[in-house]
Amino acid sequence: MTKSIRETAEKIRKLEVQGARNVAIAAINAIEASAKQTRATSKKAFLEELSKAKQELFASRETEPLMRNAVRWIISQVEANREKQPKKLTALVSSSVRQFLKELEVSKEMIAETGAKRIRNNSVVFTHCHSSTVTHLLKRAKQQGKKFEVICTETRPSCQGRTTAREMLEIGIDVTMIVDSAARYFMNEADLVIVGADAITSEGNVINKIGTSMIALVAHEARTPLYVVSELLKFDPATIYGDYEKIEERSPSEVWQDAPEGLVIRNPAFDVTRRDYIHGIICEEGIVSPHSAMEVVRRRYPWVFAQSTS
Amino acid sequence: MTKSIRETAEKIRKLEVQGARNVAIAAINAIEASAKQTRATSKKAFLEELSKAKQELFASRETEPLMRNAVRWIISQVEANREKQPKKLTALVSSSVRQFLKELEVSKEMIAETGAKRIRNNSVVFTHCHSSTVTHLLKRAKQQGKKFEVICTETRPSCQGRTTAREMLEIGIDVTMIVDSAARYFMNEADLVIVGADAITSEGNVINKIGTSMIALVAHEARTPLYVVSELLKFDPATIYGDYEKIEERSPSEVWQDAPEGLVIRNPAFDVTRRDYIHGIICEEGIVSPHSAMEVVRRRYPWVFAQSTS
Amino acid sequence: MTKSIRETAEKIRKLEVQGARNVAIAAINAIEASAKQTRATSKKAFLEELSKAKQELFASRETEPLMRNAVRWIISQVEANREKQPKKLTALVSSSVRQFLKELEVSKEMIAETGAKRIRNNSVVFTHCHSSTVTHLLKRAKQQGKKFEVICTETRPSCQGRTTAREMLEIGIDVTMIVDSAARYFMNEADLVIVGADAITSEGNVINKIGTSMIALVAHEARTPLYVVSELLKFDPATIYGDYEKIEERSPSEVWQDAPEGLVIRNPAFDVTRRDYIHGIICEEGIVSPHSAMEVVRRRYPWVFAQSTS
Amino acid sequence: MTKSIRETAEKIRKLEVQGARNVAIAAINAIEASAKQTRATSKKAFLEELSKAKQELFASRETEPLMRNAVRWIISQVEANREKQPKKLTALVSSSVRQFLKELEVSKEMIAETGAKRIRNNSVVFTHCHSSTVTHLLKRAKQQGKKFEVICTETRPSCQGRTTAREMLEIGIDVTMIVDSAARYFMNEADLVIVGADAITSEGNVINKIGTSMIALVAHEARTPLYVVSELLKFDPATIYGDYEKIEERSPSEVWQDAPEGLVIRNPAFDVTRRDYIHGIICEEGIVSPHSAMEVVRRRYPWVFAQSTS
Amino acid sequence: MTKSIRETAEKIRKLEVQGARNVAIAAINAIEASAKQTRATSKKAFLEELSKAKQELFASRETEPLMRNAVRWIISQVEANREKQPKKLTALVSSSVRQFLKELEVSKEMIAETGAKRIRNNSVVFTHCHSSTVTHLLKRAKQQGKKFEVICTETRPSCQGRTTAREMLEIGIDVTMIVDSAARYFMNEADLVIVGADAITSEGNVINKIGTSMIALVAHEARTPLYVVSELLKFDPATIYGDYEKIEERSPSEVWQDAPEGLVIRNPAFDVTRRDYIHGIICEEGIVSPHSAMEVVRRRYPWVFAQSTS
Amino acid sequence: MTKSIRETAEKIRKLEVQGARNVAIAAINAIEASAKQTRATSKKAFLEELSKAKQELFASRETEPLMRNAVRWIISQVEANREKQPKKLTALVSSSVRQFLKELEVSKEMIAETGAKRIRNNSVVFTHCHSSTVTHLLKRAKQQGKKFEVICTETRPSCQGRTTAREMLEIGIDVTMIVDSAARYFMNEADLVIVGADAITSEGNVINKIGTSMIALVAHEARTPLYVVSELLKFDPATIYGDYEKIEERSPSEVWQDAPEGLVIRNPAFDVTRRDYIHGIICEEGIVSPHSAMEVVRRRYPWVFAQSTS
């Protein structure tokens, strides 16, 4: 195990790296750095090193399907290649990492292009938490000269909504912040809800920041369309066999620093939004129905399933 | 205008007195104190003094129907009485104030008795914000030897859920706190939702702390019964002619102390819960349907309507 | 039977008099004219004349509860009075007719005042068909200086929406007309739906122009509040014992002038809007819940029920 | 305590007398028989005897509001009367019992008349369990010459649907029987659901044979109107303060005679149908909204509430 | 650009050719005619001619995915073929056009066969507007000897329902016409709704004549199954990246010939029916779920996506 | 036709073999036995024998897609093989049968593994009827040391719930039995519903024991997740072209042995559960969305469609 893997895993564990995208980038960069220091003298040994790196990185946080799929893909490239020499495999790792990063970039642009079309002049867009994919999309719409407003929640307990608000202000988009529980109060004023995703399940549900499912219900009640923006690689193949158990529970102190003794504080970081409340997933392929998300992923990224057990 | 009225109105305005019940008690106590210092020499003059006091108190906060109804009732007692002498009318004010306070107490007990029956052993009761009527009811159920748990939200922005949590801990009820947006995550674990009320409208809707309507929707989605506990005198006769415009908006700084310039923060204190999401209103009469709330109030407190225009 | 009764009944039958309000006014004016020509020499004979007039008027159209209640009330005034002389009873009829007309006027103003409060600046108000009560309300809001828009359906087959549109234009309210089936397309742009009523049933449902129930469903789907404006005297006591059978079916030629032979055209004039899709009934008492409409009517107009079997 | 009271209570307890109506009739007949054998020498003693009879009868079965209200009414007549002589009070009991029975009869006819109007030619009427009020209504519609069909469930575990089926066959109404769980399969073929009631609650819900709430949900899903036929005196004043706890659980052997050891069989006799799934309650007053049922009862039978605590 | 292309585009623009199917047929016939007059001397030039024809035809109307896909397919055949000689390519265009038309015919039959199975004896089938695919299906069911009725709306503003009605009468199917807004009034009498489609989106929604989405909502409320009949080639690949903006707005004069000045008339030709209200899409493959429509199209017609950007 | 085919078909017809799995196993075992006695001297003759066997088996019961798909697959293996000699084809039939049975076994294990993950400690699992796949899954969860309870319906008319109950007791799982119509009464206590399937349709609906659709609706109302466990090979390709007509109606005597003359008893064995009420189908691939079930089957078992017309 190289230092770069250990350190990166540690940073992920401690939330020093955050956001599905950033975590994935950090992980594969660490894989590349690690591969460059390989001491392997055979492909088998090289793959074993990669496997250990994978295990370390996977263990660093529970629900990070994008990172996991990224690592799986890099390794699958090595496995599939006929090359046997570790040196050349190192180069292959590097080029695969470059390719993956580039494709991530392309996906982001494609999502921004597609999603921006859903925003019209005078639209009011509701969002929750902070998602760099969402804010990138909103910036794109702004660059296209559209005039629209954003309503964002503060997103307790960590108030990532403040980051969203700041980014909107920086680029001159009118933004209104509300407490999370005011979502229903303001929903009738919104034309559209756009949220990010942490994971997509085999049933077509979306796992995202706690509160998303409630906002989705509120949007559904008001016939306000809700779109999830997400790379398809956030699909979590483990959900085919698993369930909701892996919702990370974070520290109670995020909710109440000096809570009285005896008080139980439950602090789940995510919740599950039903496919029925999602109009579409805006992804690198355009807009797809959540109900057939798994088939889309299977068609596009068959290797995700091939490796899903490891 | 006496000092007691001015000071009380000021305290209400500055939120030094909070909670529908406390505000009502402070207001009629001030009326009594004020009446004792009357300089009126005729009943007409006495009533004019009362009318001015009423105006001052009514102006102190927008939505306080219980306080308004309390003041209206005291004055209606004076008006209806044949007595002409200010002195004796002062005594009448005092006895009316006593009677009103006593009936408030009786209502609270009746609500606690009735509501406690809805809590069974091993129930999980979900609540939002802090309501002394709700916590009184929960204490009653605990005193009856029932073993149950409470889930309470923190209730942003002012975190009144902490008060609820502390009260539960003090009397030995197991309590779990969550962020507001986690309501849907935990709703399937709850057997029952109980919330308070700030006002009841002529349509049968209930105005309560921001977020209540969202929790009601979430409860409805999960077929979890939601009960509102409230004195019927929180019925607001102005709603017969008015609308939702009077939802108080509080200071943005409650939400974000040093928000960046340019950011609009909307901070409504209440929202409106639809009658369709309310199983029943637990009041001084027992449990009634919200859909006929206005008729119940008309039958029980006809004077509320007689004075509703003033 | 006097000529005035016969002629008025004929006009109602032929739809020369239209609109619940106009029909009621015509009927009681005819009663008054008829009473003035009485040949009765006893109260009994006088009442018999009134009873015949009532039967003739009631037979002129199927669903006209306002007219029926108006006639019932005039007769109940005669019955209840101790006066025995036909001459004086004639005067009583006249004064009762005046009083009823005046109260109709007061109701209309009260409805306009209350309903206008629900319209805010920049509101978009959706309406269907033509109702003089609705347009009076909209004019009131306009007079109050509010700036708002109206969307109205054309309302097939008779296109009463054109009358609504013209009235809006005359008073300078921005108005958009759409075909009936476009209601769902535009509903998300509306803040509020306001419609009139032809009858209110004992279950709390509202009978109004065909299409109203569909618009109500569409409003419900979009969480857009729908209000019915109506005098409570449109309550039909016959519904306590009856059902939907009395929905008038009008001539097929209204739908298609020269339809091909063999084609069945069904042309019901009204449909039934469920109480669950109605936020409130705006009436002479303010806003009430449709679920308790019958109790409101019983409290306010007990004589409606006393006479309901005749 | 007289023998007639003891025996009647015993028969009720052992289900030898069944059906809300039959139980009520048996109870007040027993009261009358018992009153005739009074040994009381004062009104006070007479009332004490009645009170003991009441307690014995009330204890015989948990949910029998009609019987309870009947007994309450008889006693309230005695209490309110100025007569002091036990003999004459005995006569008063007799005449009150006669009057109550007659009014029960009148209610039944009124319900049949009103409900029969809801049945049209070629209607398909769905019903559950056996209710003499429902079958009386169906017979009335048949006598009126209407041609319609009935679908009835078998109604496990006691198969009261067989009684319904037999009664239909006897009077020549086409009837189809299905298993309870096939209700959704056949609901789209039904035009109307009519069921009886065991109790009406203060919230406006209806307690009836287990399965009713499921059929109501299924009817709601298919937009098939559901009517409950019930005397208003099935309103249970205890529900104002109580809850669902009193749903009788009957013997497991009704479900499975020789169930294997260790198997828990739960056999609740009733369930609670939400007011939202009920179009109307067809009662002695005609059709009323369930949402205002309590107010209707209060207006019509105020004594029900006066005595509700005893 | 040949005259045949220009003329056909003009006819499409002026609505002289109507109906997705007819427009597609006209367009590819024009392509064929145009190809026959080619002056190209190279494949490249030939393809350029085709590309110009495509642009002209695409510009003639906004939402005609079937036509666009037809044109795309013809061109893709030319592109994929190894042939270089314009003459032979002309022949290839011809044979491709023949093949496409034949497959359209096969689809229509397959749809009729499959859809006819959903119609049973005594069924009441509800439809909206005029769709030759729908009426073909109904004729098939009739030919199979089934006895059923049709309810059709008049379909304002252009009253295409009259064409449907006439076609039904011609082949002896009982048909009832209603105004559009009476759909909810009659929905409980229908066993099934069948409508056509103008476009299918990547989310699985269906774009069809204005009013379809409202009828779908009404059918959903009544648990009446709604089927869309449509060739899968009405899938619009542009929706993957686009939105609802392209709903054609037609002339206000269709709605009101001499509307008063100042009146805004909005006349959208289509609306969007949510996938959740559609039981199935009956297409050339049989019945498929709308939620996976895009995957079905991808599997069957991968070339639709290859060319979607052009 | 061999004796083994005739006898097996007869057993299936008489319900001596029951359960989709058992029927499929019996059928392909009969095919194998029959193949071993072949008198064919050419592949063509051999295939004709198989075809006759198929017809006989298919005719034995209406809805048995698993059996049909099993037989189709065996035959497709023979057809696809280059071997011409009947003897060797007999061996191929045998090995194909072995392979199919093995894969059925693997599927069952995979379903049990995946489904068991959905059961947590203290879960309450609701089930209906008896499904060996469901009980296998429950046993697996129990073997994993999880502590949970099962609620099962009795499942009229044949009371297969008793079999479920007995199996649960045998392996020490706490089980409660209720009548079918009590499902809604107990649904709020359940964490999860798991049911089997007889067929999956092209729309993504599931056909299972009568009552399943009602339980699914009740689960949906209470936000209780419902999973269907089923091999994907229960997909019925005939549904692509067909409809619900094939729901088997069984003998009235199952419902009432000595029903009175004239009583119609309808006894459908299955009903159709809408895809919208199903959270996921737990199959040999893991958990998939019902909305894309057909695409999953097409991807995995393309031969099912190739042969679907025969």
Topology at a glance:
The structure is a homohexamer of 310-residue chains.
Chain A (H helix, E strand, L loop, with lengths): L2 H11 L6 H17 L6 H16 L6 H16 L5 H32 L6 E4 L4 H12 L5 E5 L7 H10 L3 E5 L4 H5 L4 E4 L3 E2 L5 E4 L2 H10 L4 E4 L34 E2 L4 E4 L6 E4 L2 E3 L4 H8 L1 H5 L4
Parallel strand pairs in A: 1-2, 1-4, 2-3, 4-7, 7-10
Antiparallel strand pairs in A: 5-6, 6-9, 10-11
Q: Between the first and last Cα atoms of chain A, what is the distance in angstroms?
A: 18 Å
Q: What amount of the residues of chain A lies in strands?
A: 5-15%
As laid out across the biggest beta sheet of chain A, the strand order is 3-2-1-4-7-10-11
Shape of chain A: globular
This entry's quaternary arrangement is homohexamer
Structural class from helices and strands of chain A? alpha/beta
Q: Rounded to an integer, what's the Rg of chain A over CA atoms?
A: 20 Å
User: Regions of chain A with pLDDT < 50 over 5+ consecutive residues?
Assistant: none
- In total, the number of strands of chain A is 11
Tell me about the biggest sheet of chain A? 7 strands, mixed
Order of helices and strands of chain A: HHHHHEHEHEHEEEHEEEEEHH
> What's the pLDDT, averaged over the residues of chain A?
93
What fraction, in percent, of the residue positions of chain A are helical?
A: 40-55%
Total number of helices of chain A: 11
Largest interface, C-beta closer than 8 angstroms, per-chain residues: A-B, 43 and 43 residues
